[in-house]
Design a protein that fits this description.
The complex is a heterodimer of chains A (136) and B (287). With 136 residues, chain A is of the alpha+beta class. Chain A is 25% helix and 40% strand. Chain A contains 2 helices and 10 strands; from the N terminus they run E-E-E-E-E-E-E-E-E-E-H-H. In chain A, strands 2-1-9-8-5 form a 5-stranded mixed beta sheet, with no helix packed on it. A 5-stranded antiparallel beta sheet of chain A has the order 4-3-6-7-10. In chain A, strand 3 and strand 4 form a beta hairpin. In chain A, helix 1 packs antiparallel against helix 2. Chain B is α/β, with parallel strands linked by helices and 287 residues long. Chain B has 2 domains: 51 residues, ATP synthase, gamma subunit, helix hairpin domain (Helix Hairpins); 220 residues, ATP synthase, F1 complex, gamma subunit (Pyruvate Kinase, Chain: A, domain 1, 3-Layer(aba) Sandwich). Helices cover 62% and strands 13% of the residues of chain B. Chain B contains 6 helices and 6 strands, in the order αβαβαβαββαβα. In chain B, strands 3-2-1-4-5 form a 5-stranded mixed beta sheet. In chain B, strand 2, helix 3 and strand 3 form a beta-alpha-beta unit. The chains are: A alpha+beta (136), B alpha/beta (287). The interface between A and B is medium-sized, with 22 and 27 residues. Strand 5 of chain A pairs parallel with strand 6 of chain B, so a sheet runs across the interface.
Chain lengths: 136, 287
């Protein structure tokens, strides 16, 4: 078991369910300002999530890995809460669908016209890439 | 006294109505179970969202942000969540009454974003302007639907078309009690007490990238989650209300049937007695 003084609570909550709760010694996730790794006793911080992979490390246990797409994170010294709009376990991801989404998004970005919402296409591409990455 | 045949026919018709109400009750019970579970699952997300936003705003009282200031337009948007189907007791009329009875919402200043046919029709009849009809959503609300709705409403808000946003929905307290609610979404307002307690709980919160940008991103999510929570609760309330309405309809039918059965038996008895008297009278006349 992990040493208690290094363990903090992690909660991942989505609108449809409580996605994950448990202890962790370190959590890694992607924010709008870049990748972030959090240990216990982090300064209180609220940050905006970007599509990416969440990795929860807990000594002596297997890492918990999931895809999280948008939302925000509230970091307190002894607790990290991720409020995500979408969160998925690796086994829930449909790789073929993600692959198709990636192609569609790339297509749209390659042929930029007035009608293409570049930001949205980029966001879709990033989500697809995260999904593909995780399902490997 | 009504004839035996009339009573029998009446009884038959009530019996078949009772079968329908019974079936409807069973259907809405099942739907209620599902909707209730969903509402319970959504709750933690919604609560966290509310807590975070309150604590954020508690410390950012001085921020000048479009979502925190009243828009210039006098128009007020009201998102009215009702059902597409009737036979749910006072469920739909309670919501309409809440909107029409509110002093803050005079008909000429209100633009209705209707979710649910019944509320839309009722408000249209009373002279409210219906700006959007999203009645399909209520059949099976998803988070994506809520996000879409939020985008639309916030778009109109930032474009200056509307100055305030209200939400009218039915809060699902428990299976038997539902409460129509009218809440103000934007500009965001919390009462001082909540802000104080939130401010006391976590003293120094940092924001990344910075408060304004975080607010920019979190407020739409907050509104979306409120929409989603309201939609899910409204569905649960609708089915709860229908279940109750159908339950009382079934027991009313039961009562009427037993009443009619008594009347029917009396009429039968009466006709037998009458027949007997006639036969006896006839027989004595012959002898």
């Amino acid at each position: 078991m992990a040493d208690d003084s290094r363990v903090f609570q992690v909660e991942i909550i989505t609108p449809d369910r409580i996605f994950h709760t448990g202890g962790a010694t370190m959590i890694e996730f992607n924010t709008a300002a870049g990748e972030l790794g959090v240990y216990k006793r982090h300064i209180p911080l609220t940050t905006v999530l970007a599509p990416g992979i969440v990795k929860i490390h807990n000594d002596g246990e297997e890492d918990v890995v999931a895809a999280v797409h948008s939302g925000f994170a509230e970091i307190l010294p002894d607790k990290v809460t991720l409020l995500a709009e979408v969160a998925e376990w690796p086994q829930e991801i449909d790789k073929n669908r993600a692959e198709e989404a990636r192609k569609r998004a790339e297509e749209r970005l390659a042929h930029k016209t007035e009608a293409v919402d570049v930001k949205r296409a980029e966001f879709a591409l990033r989500k697809a890439l995260v999904r593909i990455d995780l399902s490997k | 006294m009504a004839s035996m045949r009339d009573i029998k026919r009446r009884k038959g018709s009530i019996q078949s109505t009772q079968q329908i109400t019974k079936a409807m009750k069973l259907v809405s019970t099942v739907k209620l179970q599902k909707a209730k579970n969903r509402a319970e699952q959504t709750n933690p997300y919604f609560n966290y969202m509310y807590q975070t936003v309150t604590s954020m705003l508690a410390k950012s009282g001085t921020i000048n942000h479009p979502y925190l200031n009243r828009g210039t337009s006098a128009k007020k948007a009201v998102i009215v969540i009702t059902s597409n189907r009737g036979l749910a007791g006072g469920y739909n009329s309670n919501i309409t009454k809440l909107v029409t009875g509110s002093d803050a919402l005079p008909a000429k200043d209100v633009e209705v974003y209707a979710i649910g046919n019944k509320g839309k029709e009722a408000l249209e009849r009373r002279g409210y302007e219906v700006k959007m009809d999203g009645s399909g959503i209520i059949e099976s609300p998803s988070y994506a639907d809520a996000a879409e709705l939020c985008k639309r409403v916030l778009g109109d808000y930032t474009a200056g078309e509307i100055g305030e946003i209200y939400l009218a929905y039915t809060h699902f307290k428990n299976t038997v009690s539902h409460e129509p609610k009218l809440i103000k979404l934007l500009p965001v307002e919390f009462d001082g007490e909540e802000i104080e307690s939130a401010a006391a709980s976590n003293v120094l919160m940092n924001y990344e990238p910075n408060e304004e940008e975080a607010l920019d991103m979190i407020i739409p999510k907050y509104v979306t989650s409120l929409f989603y929570g309201a939609l899910v609760e409204a569905v649960a309330s609708e089915n709860g209300a229908r279940m109750q309405a159908m339950d009382s309809a079934t027991s009313n039918a039961e009562e009427m049937i037993s009443d009619l059965t008594l009347k029917y038996n009396r009429a039968r008895q009466g006709s037998i007695t009458q027949e007997l008297t006639e036969i006896i009278a006839g027989a004595s006349a012959i002898s």
